[in-house]
Amino acid sequence: MTKIGKAIGWVVFGFGILLGLWGWFGTLNPPANGGYEVTRAIAGGGAVIALIGLGIIVMVRQMSFAWRRIESRIAEQTFAECTLCARALNVENDPMSRDCGGDCWGCIGKIEADEAWQPSVDYVQLEIGEGWRFPDGTAKPTPTN
Ligand SMILES: [Zn+2]
């Protein structure tokens, strides 16, 4: 989409430059019978079209920046927080924040342990021992150091 928009912008810009040059050369060697006015008008029109082309290029650039910002904001909302407890995901010093498909390991580990899924029961026990979870298996908040 951005590429097409930019290509259109450049084509319009190039067309305007060519038209402008053609008109400008025309004014240097004007044909008889008031041809000067016509070629000057063509040169002016070419310049305007070239400016419009530049305008399109700049507009497409701005739009693509804005779109990228929107996209990254959507990505943040989708992936940056646990959908169950809103803990920030994939925080470096927070083992409970590991991303388990949009939920944090803190929540998922406890759910799985509560369902007696043995590997998670073992992990959660270990993590209670490490001080990352409360004795009931609930994840402690993200460390704030
Ligand atoms: Zn969570």
Secondary structure blueprint with pairings:
Blueprint: H1 2-28, H2 35-79, E1 99-100, E2 103-104, H3 105-114, H4 118-130
Antiparallel strand pairs: 1-2
Bound molecules: zinc ion.
Notes on the protein architecture:
- The protein is mainly α and 145 residues long.
- It has 2 domains: 2-77; 80-145, no CATH class.
- It is 66% helix and 3% strand.
- The protein has helices at residues 2-28, 35-79, 105-114, 118-130, and strands at residues 99-100, 103-104.
- It has a two-stranded antiparallel ribbon with strand order 1-2.
- The radius of gyration is 32 Å and the shape is rod-shaped.
- The protein starts with a helix and ends in a 15-residue tail after the last helix.
**How far do the termini sit from each other?**
44 Å
Counting H and I runs of at least 4 residues, what is the number of helices?
A: 4
Order of helices and strands: HHEEHH
What is the overall pLDDT average?
A: 88
Q: How many beta strands in the DSSP annotation?
A: 2
Strand order of the largest sheet: 1-2
Bound molecules: zinc ion
Query: Structural class of the secondary structure composition?
Result: mainly alpha
Tell me the overall shape. Answer: rod-shaped
How many strands, which pairing sense, and closed or not: the largest β-sheet?
2 strands, antiparallel
Bin the helical content.
Answer: 55-70%
- Low-pLDDT ranges: none
Number of domains: 2
Rounded radius of gyration (Å): 32 Å
Query: Which strand-content bin applies to the residues?
Result: under 5%
